[in-house]
Amino acid sequence: MVLDRDLISDQSRRKNMTLKRVVITGYGAVSPYGRGVESLMDGLLRGLSTVRYQPGLESLQGLRTRVGATVPSLDEKEIPRHFRRSMSKLSIYAALAATDALQQAGVDAALCASGRVGVAAGSTLASTTVTENFFADYLCDHSIERMKSTLFFQLMNHTCASNLAQVFGIRGRLLAPSAACATSSQALGYGCEMIAAGHQDLMLCGGADEFHPLSCATFDILNAASTAYNDRPDQTPRPFCADRDGMVCAEGAGILVLECLDSARRRGVPILAEILGFASCCDPGSIANPDAAVMESCMRQALQQAQLEPAAVGYVNAHATGTEQGDVAEAQAIGRVFGSSTPVSSLKGHMGHTLAACGALETIATVEMMRQAKLVPTLNLSRPDERCPALDYLVSPRQQGCEVAMKNNFALGGVNTSLVLRRTEDD
Amino acid sequence: MTEEQIITTVNQALAEEFELELEAMQPAASIYADLGLDSLDTVDMVIVLEAAFKFKIRDEEAIKKIRTLQDIYDFVQRKMAELS
Q1: To probe the interface with B, which of A145, A151, A153, A166 has the most B CB atoms within 10 Å?
Q2: Quick check: B44 and A149 CB within 8 A?
Q3: With contact defined as beta carbons under 8 Å apart, do A400 and A261 qualify?
Q4: Is the pTM of this model over 0.90?
């Protein structure tokens, strides 16, 4: 039997539970620009497209898109075979990005092993390439006699997070969110909440995906992939542009070290940014089509958590992938929340859609933009679609400081996320 | 298949699968202590050997007793002799 006084005591306990502040102390990127945050920012600020013609797409019957953005070859052998054997490409990307993130944050093996560090990372699927190769062999004779011992570890849903924990000897909690394009922003948000609630001091958060023709096919059959620019790959995708014709698949990994402010100060490490707010909500109206009202609600919830008015936000990093419906809905939602004077851009024009990595990669880039006081415009946005409301669409680089930014991600499956990030003075 | 061919085939197959240096592949080398294999690797070692020599050995008791490369050479040689 629950007594009234128990309820009262529970309520007062909850009120007294103070949430810890969460900051970013390191990040690493593996993007279509290559490895490193420096190459990511250099490419973004120089307005370089990474989208290329992909001959590998020619062999799929019925596939119309021929463009994609892939990661240049990397030295995978930096990861010892003992760990690499259970990894597909996406985990390799994640491990390389995490190596750089942990190094920047000054997190060593002893801290990883302390139990104070957890991991939250995911992918859209596991490796489609590994799945395809396995079934191509298995379906010949339904024999499991050629099945390697590490196959499962490359295909399990938590492959990205588990492999990171193995490589870095992480002994804390593991979360493996999987929400397609919102995967890594969910990882950041849920990792942040885990620290805020005091369950972990640090969380290695992010996501990764690897390029596969069937990823392109998923969007192509929904009429959401770019098909008209196969002969001019660097001119697509075109977020918010009247001439856009769909998204472009890409790959990569973004990994961030989130840490409670007290821990970061105690360790004396540079603080790159603070996460002020996070919201994630489902959009049950459609599993595929976005709804501006739900996007708006998500952004407002994140602002509410950050205890900020929309006017405090100096830049919105949009999800905008270059699709017919998604860009219009997001622009409408941004317009309703922020009005027309807050700078807005999407990084999909540069890198395509890195799927489960995009939330983390774009968060890293957003923090860097705040730190460098340089806002990256939307590449290929030559004339905004008239159905998108009047916003301050960035079409050229802008030297502009920004104290607080919002990062949106909206995923197939009806999953929305918004993060509110604050620039910090510590250096 | 000659003994030398068996040794070459084993070494090449294992070197490729487990990224081993051929110089380290001395007959007395322990597959665990010297070559760094573990229990997951030994599962894959069986698959690799089955593919290289076109035989089935997964259920052979003798597999469990393998400790060195020489043990593998001897095992393969015995198995090939049995099959011929």
Answers
A1: A145
A2: yes
A3: no
A4: yes
ipTM over 0.90: yes
- Which domains are seen in chain A, by residue range? 22-423 (3.40.47.10)
For A263-275, write each residue's pLDDT tens digit. Answer: 999 999 999 999 9
Would you name the residues of A annotated as active-site residues? 181, 319, 353
pLDDT in tens, B11-50: 999 999 999 999 999 999 999 999 999 999 999 999 999 9
Would you say A294 and A283 are in contact if contact means Cβ atoms under 8 Å apart? yes
Out of B18, B36, B47, the one facing A146 most closely (by C-beta) is: B47
- Identify whether the C-beta of residue B70 lies closer than 8 Å to the C-beta of residue B27: yes
Of B61, B73, B68, the residue nearest B32 (C-alpha) = B68
A130-187 residue pLDDT tens: 999 999 999 999 999 999 999 999 999 999 999 999 999 999 999 999 999 999 999 9
- Residue B83: inside a domain: no
Give the pLDDT of residue B84: 85
**Which residue out of B39, B47, B49 would a mutagenesis test of the A interface target, given it has the greatest number of A Cβ atoms within 10 Å?**
B47
Whether B82 maps to a domain, the answer reads no
For the purposes of burial, counting CB atoms within 10 Å of the CB of A147, is it exposed (0-12), middle (13-18) or buried (19 or more)? middle
